[in-house]
């Protein structure tokens, strides 16, 4: 009889596109999110924690198909053969929550949400399939005061976490203004969207929508390829840095001109920018409405003390998502960093959002105005590390060493007193036989202090307290005389343990 085949051991590896987060990463993120939540709470927003799993029907943007049911999302069928998926952002769940509970929620409903989202997309450098988002939205009001408030709150949140004024700018535009420009060049928005399942959609309808979407995507590349690059992409196409040729949208130069006028409308002052935008939209009613909304947002922000040094009208902000219907905004960090080749470049965008008045209507059949913002948590954490606001080696706990395993209760009593005093501490729980290993453990934990109580110290009613940070500094550079003058180990009465540890920690900070 053949022996059963031995089951191979599983390979210990993180799935592609995912990552593990350890101590400092987790605590730094939590501290940043707590600071942002404090700003949102101050503005009157309530916390919401929705399900990580939604029906694919509710998510809406990605629908199952025959070839790849989980296109764009991680999806599966439940026992009722209903398609479910991990949420890909925090906005689609909000639309579902509001539609489901609108009779029990205040109007407008102001909520913030923080948590992981999942996207079944090809991973790359700095691009993961699971990442954190931090959102705030107001649902149920068309007032531009809500848009202005979101922008002001975003500016305050950046300053709260450690991005100083002058190192960021919140840039604001309006999709209605862009729609007005497209109206001028003969690409008026059609009522019928390009959908192959729409039997009533004509070829020209589908063509117009495809061209409009292509123009939108091209405009969104303005920061990367500049005015000339956008002109080429709008018309005949261009060759990218790798030498590959990218086909153009196919507009004529006469059609591309108003688009470029719009993109370069930013003036020396807000008033000049708004005047340029009025000229760019011409007689388009939709465009004129968009300019008026920008004027109102500017007035409301100035009344609160948010000038163009913090929040500015910038026509180059487009935002790629198609569901935006009005004002859009991005928070950009303006300080320079060095890229992987040592070249200086600006850090770039860390947050974005806008008005989306049609999303809830998918559930209710009625338009519900809404506006929101999403902060890229990992991007903002990276920015704070660049600025030195966080990072460096995290301080570990005070370690109480074990000199006699039969006296574990004594050591637990010590650690209990330290914790009651608000001091992070732990008892060494490994094999206490080798004291050197205990000190190596404390070093690996980045412990600031070690507590030592052997039989002799116990008999005399004292403890030894070792300042590990000072000890490391002395060992690295001090002379013998300096070492004698600056002892790094202290003997104190047992009842002064907490007081002495607190003094040492205060001196280290």
From TrEMBL:
| Entry's EC annotation | 6.1.1.21
Q: Where in the cell is it found?
A: Cytoplasm
- Write the record's keywords in alphabetical order, separated by commas: Aminoacyl-tRNA synthetase, ATP-binding, Cytoplasm, Ligase, Nucleotide-binding, Protein biosynthesis
Q: Is the keyword Lipid biosynthesis in the record?
A: no
According to its UniProt entry, the protein's GO biological process terms are: histidyl-tRNA aminoacylation
Ranges where the Aminoacyl-transfer RNA synthetases class-II family profile domain occurs = 1-397
GO CC annotation terms, alphabetical: cytoplasm
Annotated positions binding L-histidine = 89-91, 119, 133, 137, 319, 323-324
Write one Gene Ontology MF term. histidine-tRNA ligase activity
Concerning Pfam families, the annotation shows: HGTP_anticodon, tRNA-synt_His
The reaction(s) this protein catalyses = tRNA(His) + L-histidine + ATP = L-histidyl-tRNA(His) + AMP + diphosphate + H(+)
Signal peptide limits? none
Classify the main location.
cytoplasm
The subunit structure is: Homodimer.
Q: Which family does it belong to?
A: Belongs to the class-II aminoacyl-tRNA synthetase family.
User: Under what name is this protein listed?
Assistant: Histidine--tRNA ligase
Q: Which organism is it from?
A: Roseovarius tolerans
């Amino acid at each position: 009889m053949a022996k059963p085949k031995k089951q191979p051991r599983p390979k210990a590896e993180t799935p592609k596109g995912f990552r593990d987060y350890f101590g400092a990463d987790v605590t730094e993120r939590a501290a940043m999110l707590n600071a942002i939540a404090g700003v949102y709470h101050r503005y009157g927003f309530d916390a919401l924690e929705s399900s990580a799993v939604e029906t694919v029907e509710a998510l809406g943007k990605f629908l199952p198909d025959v070839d790849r049911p989980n296109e764009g999302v991680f999806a599966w069928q439940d026992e009722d053969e209903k398609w479910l998926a991990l949420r890909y952002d925090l906005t689609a769940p909000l639309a579902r929550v509001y539609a489901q509970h609108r009779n029990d929620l205040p109007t407008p409903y102001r909520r913030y949400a923080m948590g992981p989202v999942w996207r079944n997309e090809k991973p790359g450098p700095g691009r993961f399939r699971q990442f954190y988002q931090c959102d705030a939205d107001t649902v149920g009001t068309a007032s531009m005061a809500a848009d202005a408030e979101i922008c002001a709150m975003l500016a305050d949140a950046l300053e709260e976490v450690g991005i100083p004024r002058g190192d960021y700018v919140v840039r604001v535009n309006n999709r209605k203004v862009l729609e007005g420009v497209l109206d001028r060049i003969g690409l008026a928005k059609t009522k019928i969207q390009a959908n192959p399942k729409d039997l009533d959609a004509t070829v020209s309808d589908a063509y117009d929508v495809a061209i409009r979407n292509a123009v939108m995507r091209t405009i969104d590349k303005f920061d990367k390829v500049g005015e000339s690059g956008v002109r080429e992409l709008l018309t005949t196409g261009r060759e990218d840095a790798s030498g590959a040729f990218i086909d153009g949208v196919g507009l004529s130069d006469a059609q591309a001109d108003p688009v470029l006028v719009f993109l370069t409308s930013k003036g020396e002052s807000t008033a000049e920018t708004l005047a340029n935008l009025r000229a760019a939209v011409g007689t388009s009613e939709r465009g004129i409405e968009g300019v008026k909304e920008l004027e109102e947002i500017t007035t409301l922000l100035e009344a609160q003390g948010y000038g163009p040094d913090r929040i500015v009208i910038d026509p180059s902000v487009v935002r790629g998502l198609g569901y935006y219907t009005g004002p859009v905004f991005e928070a950009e960090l303006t300080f320079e960093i060095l890229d992987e080749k040592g070249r200086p470049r600006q850090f770039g965008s860390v947050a974005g959002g806008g008005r989306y008045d049609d999303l809830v209507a998918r559930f209710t059949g009625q338009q519900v105005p809404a506006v929101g913002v999403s902060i890229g948590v990992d991007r903002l954490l990276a920015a704070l590390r660049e600025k030195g606001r966080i990072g460096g080696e995290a301080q570990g706990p005070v370690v109480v060493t074990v000199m006699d395993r039969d006296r574990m209760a004594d050591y637990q009593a010590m650690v209990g007193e330290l914790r009651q005093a608000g001091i992070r501490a732990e008892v060494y729980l490994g094999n206490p036989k080798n004291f050197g290993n205990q000190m190596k453990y404390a070093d690996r934990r980045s412990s600031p202090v070690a507590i030592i109580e052997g039989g002799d110290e116990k008999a005399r009613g004292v403890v030894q307290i070792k300042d590990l940070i000072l000890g490391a500094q002395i060992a690295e550079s001090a002379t013998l005389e300096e070492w004698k003058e600056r002892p790094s180990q202290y003997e104190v009465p047992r009842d002064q343990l907490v007081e002495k540890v607190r003094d040492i920690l205060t001196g280290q900070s």
